[in-house]
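Lecture 7 notes: from sequence to structure.
We start with the chain below.
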Amino acid sequence: MFEYNCSRRQFLGLAGGVAAVAGLGLAGCGNSAAPAEGSADAASTLAGEVTYDGASSFQALVEAAAEKFMDQNPDVSVSGSGNGSGTGLTAVAAGTVTIGNSDVFAEEKLEAADAEKLVDHEVAVVGMGPVVSKNVTVDDLTLEQLKGIFSGAITNWSEVGGEDAKIVVLNRKAGSGTRATFEAAVFAGEENTFKGDAELDKSGDVQTQIAATDNAISYLDFSHFDDTKFNAIKVGGVEPKSENVFDNSFPIWATEHMYCAKDADEATKAFLEFMLSSDVQESLVEEQGFIPVSEMKVKKDASGKVSNL
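Predicted structure tokens for the same chain:
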């Protein structure tokens, strides 16, 4: 699955395509009361422009949901990009987009005053794990070994049971929620300034680069795994599968957040409500390689602490 910037679409003037929207009062995104049944407001067509930026890890999920949403609401356009969690959170706080997508809590990237202006919607959970080039023979690494590799302390595959070859480390750039999630699990709060041999902007860049590079290692969310081009490997003997994320057996995962302003417009509130609806949660979430929040047995808070539900 490759990420991409979705193009803005407008479907206007479709006869009979009017979708009435009532009761959009999504918690926290403003206090919108439902119009009285049969009123002129209740019969009006939802219209507007929803824009987003942020985590590339679940951009494809948001885009798939946007396609469905626009089919149901032809006078609304939904468009956006996946330029990293930090970018998305900064943009929604500044009001340059209506939704900021993030792998991490807003408090981890923004000043407290800016984070308080936003409302969080947890729309899915995603596992993330190390991936290696096809020629790498190592298929299992401990968190301590990953720490050594991504800190620059371990530099040769032979040090972790592989062939005698230099390890090529493909990292994500600072500001990436995927990088923040990976480092939180691997480094457990210790500072890490190692950049690796390359720092890449997006998950799709990692897919392309690791497929074209021998002896490389990086990390991706499960939805971007592609075993035809590179190998996803185990961590501490545990396979990177969704069912192992449910109870934190596989320790590298994140909640996917969609943030809006407290006074978000009706179209934005409606789209966020749609993301939490059965149309998305019971079909698209798993189809796109994610985990419905309802299936999790544990949760994380902004500090990274894991607790049982």
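Points to note: The chain is about 25% helix and 20% strand. Residues 59-72 form the longest helix (14 residues).
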